[in-house]
Amino acid sequence: MGHQKNIRVHETAFVTSAFRATDENLSHDTFARLWQNSKTEKWIIEYLKMVSSEEPFTHCLRNRYFLDEINALVQKNEIDVLINFGSGFSMYPFLLDKKLIHIEIDKPEIVTYKRQKLEHWQQENVLAKRDIHFIGVDFTSEYKSGLITKLNAIKGNRPCFILIEGVLFFLNREETNDLFELFKTVQNSGDYIGSASFQETIKNTQAFKNLLHFFNLKVAKTSKDDYQTIDDQYYTSVPNYTLIDQQDYFSLSKKYDHKVIKEKTLILNENFYLLKKI
Length: 278
Ligand SMILES: C[S@@+](CC[C@H](N)C(=O)[O-])C[C@H]1O[C@@H](n2cnc3c(N)ncnc32)[C@H](O)[C@@H]1O
Description:
The chain is an alpha/beta fold. It has eleven helices and nine strands. α1 crosses α3 and α7 packs parallel to α8. The longest helix has 21 residues. It binds S-adenosylmethionine (SAM). The site of S-adenosylmethionine has 20 residues, from α1. One of its GO terms (biological process) is methylation. It holds the Pfam family LCM. It is an enzyme of class 2 (transferase). One of its GO terms (molecular function) is methyltransferase activity.
């Protein structure tokens, strides 16, 4: 008998939120802590021990980077809609100006659960009201034409920012290409994509080896493909888009005055990309 896989892919969203909650000064996410629960706390203790103790900070800085970039574009009136692919339990709607329209896309069970929880917290006045549309979709299924119709109906021709963070690791290249193809279809010139992924070279680090070991042991995956890494070249050659910014944990640590603790090989260094449609 193999090890029992006790974490499902969509449940990794709880882990991401819990990491963001560990340093609110760094993440600027004051609502992530709402998702805390004892099951996640248990996984986190194991994860930090088995994978990398620097993980809370890499997640805090990822949130901070995208939050600040999106916020700057909202302030300049460059975007009206934020479309979050694989949105999990991220709390951008409550951290950004209320005029923004949000479209949150994730697996059906995640968006149903999130909607219920948000409505509950709104009734309790823990969260403010926001314009949020939820769409349940599995990116490994036949979803494209239905999703394009729904997105166009909600956003019309309004300028948008598409965010995809913490997701591509779980998808294969074909599924990723399909998503970027869809982004091109729904976006207009001047619209933005923010994406997070690991580069191929991370496979040589101890932290990534630890991560794969942890996932193979604990996380029930939907397909048997390897976890995906993506090189810079993928982003510099997305048709109709230009890469306008690229960061990683180390550059963001400098930018936000965060002290890196561990040596490089013990850190899961994720890369962050901003693309603009030509
Ligand atoms: C690690 S969480 C990240 C959540 C969120 N983007 C964040 O940064 O807080 C990964 C998310 O991707 C979603 N996801 C993974 N594979 C997916 C798929 N095939 N279709 C839809 N969503 C998927 C999961 O349900 C989960 O919410």
